[in-house]
Amino acid sequence: MTIAAQTPAGRPLASGRPYTVSELTAQIKLTLEQELPRCWVIGELSEFTHHTSGHRYFTLKDEYAQLSVVMFRAQGRRLDFVPEIGMQVMAYGRISVYERGGRYQFYAELLQPAGRGELALAFERLKARLEEEGLFAPERKRPLPRFPRSIGVVTSPTGAAIRDILSVLSRRAPGVQVYLRPARVQGVGAAAEIAAGIADLNRFGGVDILIVGRGGGSPEDLWPFNEEVVARAIYRSAKPVISAVGHEVDYTIADYVADYRAPTPSAAAEIVVQERTALIRQTVDYRQRLERAMANLLAAAAQRIETLGPPRLLRRLQDRLDQNTQYVDERRRDLISAFASYVRARRQALGQRLAQLQALSPLAHLARGYTLCQRRQDGVVVRTAEQLRPGELVDLRFHQGSATARIEELRHE
């Protein structure tokens, strides 16, 4: 009777043999990775360990289940808060299998407090929808005018952004006209005012380019620039738009829709009035850098294709590196524990040997009232009376102290 081994999908193995544990685990891992895309997971943080290697191991749980999570050191460097047990967090990443341990776990790439995570989730959803509609398409982005004569600015009239913009323009291009369309840049109703400001400056028609933005702030403060109404107002603008929101690390939906993103309001002002020679020099420099980067990229890609094979193999190598990294962490913990046990055992054995030596020491006999006798002339220990002669000097050592004596009489009993 022949029993044909079956795959999880019900298809027999080509060789007709059963799966090994490694093969079955690899099949489960492949199925999970193919069927479950990257996603956000929300839960309560528990059992958090920040390993000396820099990797983080923790558990996310809710009322009915729990999930093991790994965040490697490279991803952990991007954390801007200190995770604490009991905190509600959102993790973004992928599900896979740690093959050596035979368990599935979540590999986190991002970790955020739950409140901030909800904003991030709303951001990603709107970004994906607008991108699908073509609002971010590179081909629709317009070049900026080289020498604008008038600039429209949509921002708060009392904020730092307008002061920075005017300071740069007065220094770099004092003859340029600036038209400010005041608008609130945070809080309820701010998004509608920003969108209306963009539309008003387009109807005015007397500006060559628009700067839309504000200074830095929290994600909640910058949120009006993530609203759909602002994105569509920028998209409908007949004039090129520079988005200048927050600091260099801050990204909003407005940045993706605008014709150009400036890292700060000051940088936006510098961009629109840069001198011809600086622009030519920068263009040549960018072209050279791009050519070098593309040449290096193509050379590196060719080398990888030649030495490593198809992209799937590259992904597999990265996965093996992740697996082995976690395995090294586990073996390191085992080694530290085993070494500690070994040291304790050696200390206990050494204590026992020391007690035995102390019991065998002649000094222990002296403590019980015995005396050590040595001939003065040669230091020989005297064990019998035959070793001595009358008149001979001997040294006597007691448990505490010593003495010298002269032999007056010998008795051989």
Structure, briefly:
By secondary structure, the protein is α/β, with parallel strands linked by helices.
3D structure, described in words:
- With 413 residues, this protein is an alpha/beta fold.
- Among the domains are: 86 residues, OB fold (Dihydrolipoamide Acetyltransferase, E2P) (Beta Barrel); 134 residues, 3-Layer(aba) Sandwich (Rossmann fold), CATH 3.40.50; 41 residues, no CATH class.
- The chain is 43% helix and 21% strand.
- Strand 1 and strand 2 form a beta hairpin.
- Helix 4 runs parallel beside helix 8.
- The protein is elongated and about 135 Å long.
Which characteristics define this entry?
5-stranded parallel beta sheet; 413 residues; 11 helices; Rossmann fold; 13 strands; OB fold (Dihydrolipoamide Acetyltransferase, E2P); 5-stranded mixed beta barrel; alpha/beta
Topology:
Layout: H1 21-35, E1 39-50, E2 56-61, E3 66-71, H2 73-76, E4 88-98, E5 103-113, H3 114-133, E6 150-155, H4 160-172, E7 177-182, H5 190-204, E8 209-214, H6 228-236, E9 241-245, H7 253-257, E10 260-261, H8 265-272, H9 276-308, H10 311-360, H11 362-367, E11 372-375, E12 393-397, E13 402-406
Helix pairs in contact: 4-8, 5-6
